[in-house]
TrEMBL record:
Alphabetical UniProt keywords: ATP-binding, Nucleotide-binding, Transcription, Transcription regulation
Protein name: Fis family transcriptional regulator
Superkingdom in the source lineage: Bacteria
Gene3D superfamilies associated with the record: 1.10.8.60, 3.30.450.40, Homeodomain-like
Any one Gene Ontology molecular-function term assigned to this protein's record: sequence-specific DNA binding
Source organism phylogeny: Bacteria, Bacillati, Actinomycetota, Actinomycetes, Mycobacteriales
Organism: Gordonia oryzae
GO BP annotation list: regulation of DNA-templated transcription
Domain called Sigma-54 factor interaction: residue spans: 466-527
InterPro entries xrefs: AAA_lid_NorR, GAF-like_dom_sf, Homeodomain-like_sf, HTH_Fis, P-loop_NTPase, Sigma_54_int
Amino acid sequence: MTDIRERQLRIAAARADFLEYGPAGAAGVDDVVAASWERSHDAGVDADRYTVAFFEDIDFDSRLARCAQPVIERLARDMSDVPVTIALTDAKARIVDRRDCSTAVGRVLDRVDFQRGFCFDESGVGTNGVGTVFEVGAPVTVVGNEHFNQSLVQFACAGAPVFDPLTGRVAGVLDASMLADTWNPLVDALIRSAAADIGRNLLLDRSQAKRALFETYLRADSRPRQAVMAVGNAAPQLTGADTVMANESAREMLSPADQERVVEFTRFLMSRHDPGARRITLDDGRSIRLRSTAITYNGDTVGMVLLLDDDHDVPSGSVRLQALRSLSTPIARSEPASSPAWQAARAEALAALESGTGVLVIGEPGSGRLSLIAETFHEVYGDAPVVVIDAQRVERGEQVTGPENAVDECALLVIRHLDKVSAPTVATLTDLVAAATDAGYLLAVTIEPPTDDHPSASSLPGIGQSVTIPPLRLRGIDLHTIVVRVVKALAPQRNSRISPKAMRILAAYSWPGNIPQLREALAEALRRRPVGEIQPDDLPGYCRANTTRALTTLEATERDAIIAALTECDGNRVRAAASLGLSRSSLYRKIHAYGISGV
């Protein structure tokens, strides 16, 4: 007992020195605790003023809470004679369940709002047995003066992460809190064991869809020396969201960057509902053969299980087919994209154009549909002409309806936005297409992904192949190259470049407007910093927000004001809240609501 008291006195002195002199004062303190103190200080936590954010939009009957309930009840029975309170949090450090083994301890914890609905993330209340676990990703014990905030010094806490066994992510934290004077190190072992039991319950409670994905993965993994991966659909409404698993053989075959490429390409295949065998080329030049099996549930593709093999044979598709007509003057190729999904789309378009087949190019607005088909056509036919017709302009009477003369060599007719016009305009363009193909034109049509209102525009004569273009958010590997090219195109005579921090912000954004939105963001950054290295605060505010809904003008203005205040205050939430006239809890809610990051 004397040793414990002496240790607490040393830590109390170190804490006081830290608060007065900074990190140098934390000498002799455990590295985990010292690092947490620094994070707490950098986040603007006040060591003497205590506030805890409360949230109403919490699911207290979540799958985590249900899986934890029998474990917590058993643990409470086992510790009925221990003066302790057991709590469970969700993945955002918000308490969803609490059991008091001691009413006296529970009453004291009530005074510091250690109750359901309150958030104990480290950036809000400082070092503690819940929030620090999320930062470290491992069990943490915080006793007495190891807490950052003075109001929590009277407690001792042991927290252990509850891991989702499929995703490997922290789904929540199981915590035991008691008065510091009654701390017993054995509590730590009990909490760790119980947290592991909750993780096992999460696996057993998996939805049928995710369980099917996991079971298919296990069956595939039973094959000796077979590299296997499983990828869940990233769509948030589907139960397989964000699941990625790889066995030891797959991890040996693929670097983390290569695994990321495979995951990105697999999700592109899922968006097309297109399982089967594929070849992809890695950055080191190796070719990998990928055999995929789709896992469906209620008509949705919730994931794919992949069998991966080194492909030692040169794919036949790499040999160019004979073009229909003699080539015009060849043009230089642009640097190819690395994204497997883009490479696959380009290969399909190339094969179709070389065989004289019309191509239906499907993709989101701004994803590069016209660029891909035009560049691929020029790769085959040199500088042969490309005629572009905008179906919407034709419907409005703003554009002449097409080429008039036959071509001597070969030409490409591209019809854009065919899915956006009425049936009479489609009929007019159908006649035009027939005349153009008779005159020697190849045909390409660009549309957005088909919906119930606008089915696939595949009824035009001459269309024999469809190609799906990946959106920018599924081309993470290409983003840096695209950014460099756009900056160079926008400022060709200037010494402008993107900083690593700004690049990380661009990479984290989802880009719903694809390349035009990226170009708009970089153009605004170049207006703010015409020359030199573009920094995070040069980018538009929306680049640091990933909210899933469209914001009103007022909300967008508020979001930009919050980002500006955080930037001005060097990320200090307390000073930013004060400058905005908000409480700190209100600022945290708005940061979460707007998906603000990177500030």
